[in-house]
Design brief:
Amino acid/polyamine transporter I, transmembrane helix, Divalent metal cation transporter, globular, mainly alpha, single chain
Amino acid sequence: MSNNLNTKDKKKSNIGVLIGAAFIMATSAIGPGFLTQTAVFTESLKANLGFVILLVIIIDLIAQLNIWQIIGVSGLRAQDIANKMVPGLGVFLAVLITIGGFAFCIGNISGAALGLNVLFGLNTKIGAIISCGIGIIVFSSKEAGKAMDIFAKVLGVGTLLLVAYVAFRTHPPVGEMILRTFVPTKVTFLPLLTLVGGTVGGYICFSGGHRLIDAGITGEEHVKEITKSSVLAISLASLMRILLFAAILGVVVNIGKPLGTVNPAAEAFRLGAGNLGYKLFGVILFSAGLTAMVGSSYTTLSFLKTLAPVFDKHTSKCIIGFITICTLVFLIIGKPVKLLVLAGSLNGLILPISLGIILIASTRKNIVGDHYKHSKLLMYLGYIVVILAVVAGYMSLGGIAELFK
């Protein structure tokens, strides 16, 4: 009888972790940059952005399914897989992820601070300190993994509901959205590359997968569960993108006023739902910044775990230190625009490297075992995504050159 109860408890615990991992990945993607990018491209492409979002969802799914399945089957983190293939390659990957994660964590703290500024008029530096404090509380818990899962779920669902409300208020042209999703009148390549990088670039695609490893949900017997969690993660991030697109499109089409360049997403919410909408955006920005900060710091440290024993032995303390350092950098620099652009470029560069490593690893028996057969179709589609991501990285480097002229 007790064995049956233990099995049920373990299954229930696994479901909680699988959903939590999906939310960690989704909320890592839905950061301040996610909000701004969607607003900018909605204003320029209008309903045609639906077609780009559809392609982004397909590409995200291909990248995510490949990465999570191979990480899950092998039970190895991405850097360990890379080191097994070529000694030192994992160290190189971990350094890239750490630089990108550090820059994005600063940006996410900045976003959370701006959210508090919108809500309460707080100085952004005070807002950053408060946001840092919340992150420290999450990782100070004795069961930090469980606390992080709950934190991501609550704020993730709250953010989705708030954006859905604003989308309802702005009355987007749903028929036009659906039509242009499949029959666009204008298509540009840059939004596709930018949105893909913002959803599965850099550390983001590994955030949930590494969480599953920490929870011990690995091996070929868990492939179906891992796949479901991966699809849920992309579905959540995609739902948020669609709702945000609908909310902003309603403003662009029905009101017709320019969103400006300072904070286009905030302006869209203000125009669409008045002062209440503006305040709701403050809540959304704060939640997005906070959850993305937790996701970026956790995933960055997961890449350092197996490279130095101290990171594995004192994981929570190291994450707290990481968040604190990022906050201090924000307090000193203020708005790290150049650093964020650099991180965006790294996202474009990291995805083809990391996904390429995973795809090659999917054929290695010393990594996936003797019996596991990875889907050939998924692998070939993955290589197409790698090619697209290489182009994305090249275009990002062009943006860096312009920035530092």
